[in-house]
Amino acid sequence: MNGVVDWLILHSPALIIAIPLLGAFLTILIGKIGPRIRNVFVIIIMAITSFLILLLVNDVFTNGIRTYVFGGGSTSIESSYAIRILFEIDGLNAFIAIIAAILPIVAIIYSWAFMKEHTGLDKYYTLILLMTAGMLGMILTGDLFNFFVFLEITSIASAALIAFYLDKQNSIQAAFKYIVISAIGALFLLFAVALFYGQYNALNMAVIANNISFTFIDKIALVVLFAALAMKAGIVPMHMWLPDAYGRAPASITVILIGTTLASLYGLFRVIFTIYGKYLFSFDSTQMALTLGVLIIILAVVTIVIGVFMALKQNDFKRMIAFAAIAEIGYMFLAVGAALSTYTFERGAAIISASGQMALKGGIFHIFNDALDVGLLFLVAGAVYYAAKETSLNKLGGLARNMKYTTVFFLIGLAAVSGLPPMNGFASKLIIYQSMFQINPLLTIVAILCSILLLAVFVKVFYSVFLGPKLPKFSGVKEVPKSMLIAMGIIASIIVFIGLFPNIFVENIVTPATNALQNATSYIGGVL
Amino acid sequence: MAFYVPYIAVVALILIGLYAVVFKRNLIKIVIGITFIECGVNLFLITLGYREKSIAPIYTSSPGGIMSLPVPQALTLTSIVIGVAVLALMLSLVVHIYRHYKTLDARKIIGGDEE
Fold this sequence. Notes:
The complex is a heterodimer. Chain A has helices at 2-31, 35-63, 91-114, 121-140, 144-162, 169-200, 205-211, 216-233, 241-248, 251-275, 277-280, 286-312, 317-340, 354-388, 404-417, 424-439, 441-466, 482-500, 502-518, 520-525, and strands spanning 66-69, 86-89, 343-346, 349-352. Chain A is mostly helical. Chain A is globular, with a radius of gyration of 22 Å. Chain A has a domain at 282-528. In chain A, α3 runs antiparallel to α10 (251-275), α4 runs parallel beside α10 (251-275) and α6 (169-200) runs antiparallel to α8. By secondary structure, chain B is mainly α. Chain B has one domain: Orthogonal Bundle (Helix Hairpins), CATH 1.10.287.3510. The radius of gyration of chain B is 20 Å and the shape is elongated. Chain B starts with a helix and ends in a 6-residue tail after the last helix. In chain B, 26% of the residues are buried. Chains A and B meet through α5 and α6 of A and α2 and α3 of B.
């Protein structure tokens, strides 16, 4: 028995990609037997994948960095041109992988009832599994070209899923916008990969990070990578695809889309902290870290402010949450930028100051919380749409009478997103506020103010959707089916659990992730 | 000078593609712009892999001399395959957009249905 578990842990990086990938194409065959068997099959595939992710994450947190070479062989590369595909998992990947383990399974459970009335569900589930495989590949890979390939797999599958409501014009338009943005982003990523390859003869992130000498070409590559990945992550000047894509896709898809957006954000952090990490930590680079930090802070503040103000004026339930999601991404970005700007010299080495460390911790923690909070809100919006067939805030009203559980879940999501205790959003936002206050009080003021505005946005939604007089149009509305309630319940219970015991979570999962983020040397050491 | 010609072509292709994506209103032209960028990036990869007077790395029948590492070519092949998939998906979306709006002009498509 122990041997089997060991074998599973040993090969889990490959199995995590292979199982959903094979499952995706088997789904079409199994769908011929019957819809019920197909749904069970998809849930089982995803459950196995999530279980393997948790095994792998547990292994990484106890034993340190895991490197998995495809086709076997040693992990070390002696000669300079040994090209091989390898996955490298340290605390940061493992942390993001937990998000990727939770979101798809919730989305699939939710789809059981949510998508029941639609046709073409075989392809729908196939694409969901493909998208999940691509997202996991982006998170686990240690190779830049591989990252590009998985990014494209994810983009193609997501674009097809965003256009799932083919009879609606808006969803096709959103899908077209998404695929154009993704294609350009991915091609620029490939361009940067070529720039690295031309200089260092390597595609492996660790090898590039080890050799990087910060020439002029490296600076160009940094700009190109930053722009491409920030575009995919929905940072403000390049955010216009996000509200459309999030708002027009089926709610279950939006939940996984959040995961892919965060995977792109992870890629951005990996580029800044690991590939350019050696240079960031070198003696004469604090100027560069400061410039980068200030740039990120400016982008983040703009992202937060624009996200919140655009959310205030929306009339569509899902678009409003999408703009709130943009603002939430701004918070993570803000914390990381602030941390970068606090690089100082101490005993010959550049390190992040204590408050910067705190900010980094808060930012990383917030990635997890954002995925859950915004995901829960989208699921609630989907449930309201399922029950009332309406997403316009002007026409909805008085639904709390008929949909008790959904109302409770919305309240949990509302409190979590706007950072109210005792939800998880409060835990991470408090860390961000505290640390930011020591770095620059102005940033804290902006952050808190926007958080309060977010509360205002969602209180307005709460009032106009769930409270108010009973509308005759919605008198026949019933509570949504069990599978949707279970999906929302899973996320809501994790939110409340983290909100009540944030320390367990921060110490065991967030701290290894922030340590891994700052420790480029050990990431390099995992390969060389 | 001849050495730089491919790189100039790369920059030109990418810039023309970006121009088309940003300024053109016709959706088909936007798609063509993206293929231009893709061609530019692929050409860049191929150019990086070129070594003067090198031969294909087939060890069993090598006449001697420098062999060029085939990694950039492999990357380009992968990228072309992915590019075709993206292109097909984009064009199929354009077909659907045309069915709904009866136009390909991006300016007339903004708005859409608010049931």
